[in-house]
Amino acid sequence: MTFPQLKDYQAIITNMLAEAGFVLTEEEQRVIEIADFGLNNLEESGLQLLTYVNNDRYCAKELVLFPHQTCPEHRHPPRADGNPGKLETFRCRKGTVYLYVEGEPTANPLAEPPAQDRQYYTAFHEVVLREGEQYTIPENTKHWFQAGEQGAIVSEFSSNSDDPSDIFTDPRIVRVQE
Fold first, then answer.
1. 117 Cβ partners below 8 Å, 6+ apart?
2. What is the three-class DSSP state of 29?
3. Nearest residue to 78 via CA among 144, 166, 143
4. Has residue 80 got a pLDDT over 90?
5. E strand segments, 38-166
6. By mean pLDDT, which of 2-16, 19-33, 122-136 is the weakest?
7. Please, are residues 165 and 77 in contact by the beta-carbon 8 Å criterion?
8. CA–CA distances in Å: residue 128 to residues 62, 100, 109
9. Is the separation of the CB atoms in 84 and 140 below 8 Å?
10. b/e per residue, 12-50, with b = 16+ CB within 10 A?
11. pTM of this prediction?
């Protein structure tokens, strides 16, 4: 995949999902979110999301990552209403995902944050998720993740998702949904 030649990200994402066996309605294809976090470097730092459901009790999404694409470090903090923050389980459906969470740093990690953004990454305990494997990220835990060389698709099952309440380590990040 050569990204400078590809202009239609929506079609690329839909194709990645279709190749992995996901069948999407036209409406689902239309509402795929492309998040570059205000960094304007989508192929390196970003995430593509398809939200199936997000209500006050639970959320289900597909997270689509291009090859070596990184979702920047963030956490889901407790909220003013007493909600402890988002508890999420990632299940790798396609490819490999390198997930980094707080904890004892891994000696020789298999992935690295984007070089120009390295100063904003602090969690280096590595969890490698291959197809069919999953990991639950506790509430209010700093984490970031990166796809392997073939890209990745991750199903996220979580408590309610409230993107505006997420706290990113990188102060330049703007998390808005269009």
1. 39, 45, 72, 170
2. helix
3. 166
4. no
5. 47-54, 59-65, 70-75, 88-101, 125-130, 134-137, 143-158
6. 2-16
7. yes
8. 18, 9, 10
9. yes
10. bbbebbeebebebeeebeeebeebbbebeebebbbbbbb
11. 0.93
Q: Which helix (H) or strand (E) holds 15?
A: helix 9-19
Two structure tokens written together for 81:
């209403």
Q: Output the six-digit token pair for 45.
A: 């730092």
What CA–CA distance (Å, rounded) separates 127 from 176?
28
Q: Distance between CA 53 and CA 61 in Å, rounded?
A: 7
How does DSSP classify residue 45?
B
Residue with tokens 């199936």: 52
Q: Taking a C-beta distance cutoff of 8 angstroms, is the pair 56, 159 a contact?
A: no
Mean pLDDT, rounded, for 41-48: 96
Q: Which two tokens stand for residue 148?
A: 């392997």
Token pair listed for 164: 């505006």
